[in-house]
Design goal:
Elements (H helix, E strand, L loop, with lengths): L32 E2 L5 E2 L3 E2 L4 E2 L5 E2 L9 E2 L24 H13 L3 E2 H8 L3 H13 L3 E4 L2 E4 L2 H34 L8 E5 L1 H14 L3 E6 L9 H13 L3 E7 L5 H13 L2 E5 L6 E4 L3 E5 L8 E5 L3 H16 L1 E2 L13 H12 L4 H8 L3 H15 L4 H10 L5
Parallel strand pairs: 3-6, 11-12, 12-13
Antiparallel strand pairs: 1-2, 4-5, 7-9, 8-9, 10-16, 11-14, 13-17, 14-15, 15-16
Helix pairs in contact: 1-3, 2-3, 5-6, 9-11, 9-12, 10-11, 11-12
Length: about 400
């Protein structure tokens, strides 16, 4: 046979029987190549279902240990596992089991256990355990010492159905345990309805956990400095994810503290779908999750130092009622400036009136409604003229008498 180094791309019409290794009649270069027609070249690529080792031997599932590339079901042991678009760990497979199953799927036919052992870099005993696990899950079938992949749609579909059944049982158990917890809560001492969370790390972690775990609603009274701190990007991501899964997100911002940074955060949240309002003089920071858990920092100026965790109790009911009262009198915030006619429509005048009645100053109103301070002052002047008021306080009283503000 002609030396491969001398003549590249030589077609070999003779077929080779794979018996574990194949000795050639001429030397094979480490950079030899085997095509689908079993032609040899010097680029170290393999496009059939066999691979060449650096010593020139041939095996049905042997990996290229030199500089070769692989275009078949086999994987390069030194280059990592098979490429994937997802992981099967969600249905209980280990990384090695997934690699072996993907290998058999790509092969499209039965492969010996020895080939899989070489692929995964495992001993014979470990490989037997690995394949036994795949067989137990119905992912492979065995014939002697050969293994074939079961059709993924059927095999994996069965595993997914089993996992869904397990999750349903967990949900039922969670509901049962919640009932037991609620029953036990009725007999708890008053002090057990409130927990104190200490330390910045614990406060931030607990708050993020509550945000991520919201299922139906999250109501927030917020003012700087913000509790999320360095975790703000993760908190915003959790808010976006929560709104996407149907959580109603309501935030009331302190109008006296609406600066550019706060407004930037508010606009991003409004873009997610948050319902945002503003009012003046928020008493404290508060988060109420699903109407069942309250979270209130102990120190407004240093919210991360400690917080109260309020469980279902009359105290939590009072906090919920407080939030609803503040929400009702707060004014909706808008993310964008109005476009078109520079004259602000009547609805915007009503917003200015409500914020003015809530005690916000012109600069805070401008930030909350995304308009210039001069425009706010024009609206205030027009409102006072219509009402015949001499002061802002008198305008607020007259507007309340006419039912213009709640």
């Amino acid at each position: 046979m002609t030396d491969v180094d001398a003549v590249r791309g030589l077609d070999v019409v003779e077929s080779f029987t794979v018996t574990g290794s194949l000795s050639t009649t001429g030397p094979l270069s480490n950079t030899g190549q085997l095509s689908a027609r079993e032609s040899l070249s010097g680029t170290a690529n393999l496009s059939s279902t066999e691979t060449l080792s650096s010593t020139g031997s041939l095996s049905s599932a042997e990996s290229v240990s030199g500089t070769g590339n692989l275009g078949s079901a086999e994987s390069l042991i030194g280059a990592g596992s098979l490429s994937s678009t997802g992981s099967l760990s969600a249905v209980g497979l280990t990384a090695s089991q997934e690699q072996a199953y993907r290998y058999l799927v790509a092969a499209g036919e039965a492969r010996p256990a020895a080939a899989i052992a070489r692929l995964a870099g495992l001993s014979a005993t470990s490989t037997d355990d690995l394949l036994a696990g795949l067989a137990e899950r119905g992912l492979v079938t065995r014939s002697g010492d050969y293994f074939r992949a079961s059709p993924p749609e059927v095999a994996l579909g069965t595993l997914v159905s089993r996992r869904d059944e397990e999750l349903d049982r967990v949900r039922l158990l969670a509901a049962e345990l919640q009932g037991q917890f609620r029953e036990a809560s009725r007999n708890r001492r008053a002090t057990e309805f409130v927990e104190v969370v200490h330390g910045q790390e614990q406060v931030n972690r607990y708050y993020l956990h509550l945000v991520q775990g919201a299922r139906s609603g999250l109501d927030i009274l917020t003012k700087p400095p913000y509790l999320a701190g360095a975790d703000l990007p993760r908190t915003l991501h959790a808010e976006d994810a929560g709104i996407r899964r149907g959580v109603r997100w309501r935030s009331v911002y302190d109008g006296d503290a609406l600066d550019d940074g706060t407004l930037a955060i508010a606009r991003q949240s409004i873009g997610f779908g948050e319902e945002a309002r503003a009012t003046s003089g928020l008493p404290f920071k508060l988060a109420i999750v699903d109407g069942r858990t309250g979270f209130m920092p102990l120190n407004v100026r240093s919210p991360a130092l400690g917080a109260l965790l309020v469980h279902t109790s009359p105290l939590l009911e009072a906090l919920v009622a407080l939030f609803e009262g503040i929400w009702a009198r707060a004014v909706p915030m808008r993310a964008d400036r109005p476009s078109g006619d520079p004259d602000i429509p009547a609805a915007r005048s009503a917003d200015v009136l409500r914020l003015m009645s809530a005690g916000l100053k012109d600069e805070a109103i401008a930030r909350a409604l995304n308009m210039s301070r001069r425009t706010v002052q024009k609206h205030v002047t027009d409102i006072m003229t219509v009402l015949g008021a001499r002061t802002r306080f008198q305008a607020a009283l007259l507007a309340s008498e006419r039912g213009w503000v709640g």
